[in-house]
């Protein structure tokens, strides 16, 4: 069997890459084992235009956010699903300092952020002492719906192989690859944190970090908003809410911890005025990078091997744009943005 590209991984990166490659008329095979604890399965699916304790504008967000919006809307149409919602994040300031930082940001530049003056409405749901701000537009992506529907789509086209990819089944030739009995022009790794263990990419400055979240049964909270009070509360499905997250740089495994559960339950009890029940505790590793920029493109010394990775905390906004950029590179030779292009690591990637 012969195809244009083999893609390893069907998280948000592999989903977007296979979508754009097919859209441009290429043939693909996607290899994915399905891991319910992969980053894309565990993520809350938020695209937030500001970041950090000073609410600075996220890198390239003016380009990334409208691009992502169009991409998810096009997928909604193609797959006949509802996966993107434009919304606002109601930010309950945790301390006086945080309130001041938010007000300062709103005074300097009120694109995306503004302070709420009438906050009475929220007293029936939440306990808070330092005012409320709003961040908008924020987008909420139903990642699990997208990933499972796209998986079915690939299955129907008979272009998904559900198995653990193994390098033992990969053979490289000068301008092609063979995976099992499939010959292709190139293989592209969209395998999240697992890419760190590939001999081709293990020298890249990955800096994975672990995130945990609780799934809560919490009926009666208005679902048209997202909420934050240190921890975020994001609508999950039906009356379930996603509550998280943590950013751990040092950990021995990617499993849920008692420590996170206890701390988060306590915080929620102090914040929420309504009863809630813990339904599930999830955790995963974000494929983050030291410089907080993605890894996109073909290996400088193995041009038939590519990567689309390093999306860290921002897979929902980065994956559509950089998947498209990689497809433009592969099919039309367009250069990839220097800050994201893998060839910036030419020296360290030398075999
Ligand atoms: C708790 C948490 C909350 C988050 N919240 C957000 C958020 O709100 N917004 C946002 O934009 N980002 C968020 N993120 C980050 C986001 O999840 C990641 O940036 C994104 O999911 C990375 O996608 P990926 O496709 O690169 O990797 P992954 O999602 O890890 O996908 C990799 C895929 O490769 C497959 N795979 C790996 N190895 C193999 C193999 N050997 N054989 C076969 N298949 C294989 C896996 O099964 C998986 O399907 C969050 C992450 C976490 C952990």
UniProtKB/TrEMBL annotation:
Keyword 4Fe-4S among record annotations:
no
On whether Flavoprotein is a keyword of this UniProt record, the answer is yes
Q: Where is the FAD dependent oxidoreductase domain?
A: 4-327
Q: Which Gene3D superfamilies match?
A: D-Amino Acid Oxidase, subunit A, domain 2, FAD/NAD(P)-binding domain
Query: Which InterPro entries does the record associate with it?
Result: FAD-dep_OxRdtase, FAD/NAD-bd_sf
GO-annotated cellular components: cytoplasm
* Any Pfam family hit: DAO
Q: What are the record keywords, sorted?
A: Flavoprotein, Oxidoreductase
Query: Which family does the record assign?
Result: Belongs to the DadA oxidoreductase family.
Name of this protein: Glycine/D-amino acid oxidase-like deaminating enzyme
Species assigned in the record: Hydrotalea sandarakina
Q: What is the lineage of its organism?
A: Bacteria, Pseudomonadati, Bacteroidota, Chitinophagia, Chitinophagales
